[in-house]
Amino acid sequence: MCALCGVLGASEHWADAHARPGAFTRNTGPLERRRERARRVTAANRVLGAFGMVLSDWQGSAFLLATRTGKTVLVGDLGHLWVSAEALAGRALDPLDPALLQRLEAAP
Amino acid sequence: MTGVPDFTPVILLTGFLGSGKTTLLSRLLADPTLGDTAVLINEFGEVALDHHLVERIDDTMVLLRSGCICCTVRGELAEAIRDLHSRRARGSVPPFRRLVIETTGLADPLPAMTTLTTDPVLRHHFRMGAIVATADAVNVARQLATQPESLKQVAVADLLILTKADLCDAATAAAAVAALRAVNPDTPLLVAGTDRLDAADIFDARPLPGASRLGLRCDPVADLAASHGSGLSSFSLVIDEAVDWTAFGVWLSALLHRHGDRVLRVKGLLNVAGSEAPVAIHGVQQLVHVPVHLAAWPDDDRRSRLVFITRGLEPAAISRSLRAFGVLARAGTAEVAA
What we know:
The complex is a heterodimer of chains A (108) and B (338). By secondary structure, chain A is of the alpha+beta class.
């Protein structure tokens, strides 16, 4: 466990277990893994932007989720991301919400 | 430790009250192929172990003639599994290679699966095997309509066993099969008394043994809502374009986080951009199994296919959301097939 942030162990989310360089090759392909994390941050930010939040990579081992007012939490993986995002936003983050989908469709 | 797999498969035996779980189990326990198996049951008394019994290890654990270890669960399931694991490591019980858990008739199988994948000790030593559900031919259609637990047990099963088909007429048995198929269209179904029920076949069934068994056929089930009054619907998304794995992970994790309690099951084959072979996805409510990389496509069709069994979710909304999240590598279409 990281003594500073309390992040426990490594992320074992199912989305990490894809045999593509960068996903699930944490010891052999550090560069690819960083790229994969960057792609994930970009993909998540498309959605999080609608809720006034931004995700960023933190040391290649966790993610930082921040609101516009500076409230920030550490999240380990995609499983924790949506729980934390809803807690920070104070409302449900529904991927089927027509308003959200309209916004995403308008900015591909 | 020799002979012990790195990850011991855990098979869940589920099924509604009176559906024949215990009868099935007591028959299978005598099978020598279960010699390398540990079984967690609710009560010794129910299974009538006496004639199989070799040695009583302690209050909660006995050794059977077949070599099978049989234990009752007192308290927490995770604790019982950890205890078994620890005894195996110390050599005080035979080195079992698989673990079968009999759930109670009213249990939702999901918490047991979640325990295995999230417990800090267990997740490094055990993996989910198949979920086997028994269904009683006489009562299952009614149970599916009135008992949400029964519905969930059938929907998440990797193998269905129809019991008591010999106690009813052919029309009732056929109606039972139709009711099961409405909830779980493509899982293999064995009929007790007609099909050979071999312990190894049942317990070594894998959630995703290969594309052929996945089938991914998802026939329209028009009378599903009417017959069950539960708003359950089953449909498949056929996606022409390759799928962006990163966006797919973001999308499905968000969908299951918010609507996991209404997605009874999602499974399918994905044509992932940049990958030659398909990736098989299998999720039960909020829990998604580790994606499986198949060696090759089952046929010439390279389209991604995702089958959903949901309660009250609109297929069109899911398809639109998938597109809007940028899951399609290019501007492809996601068409709802059924």
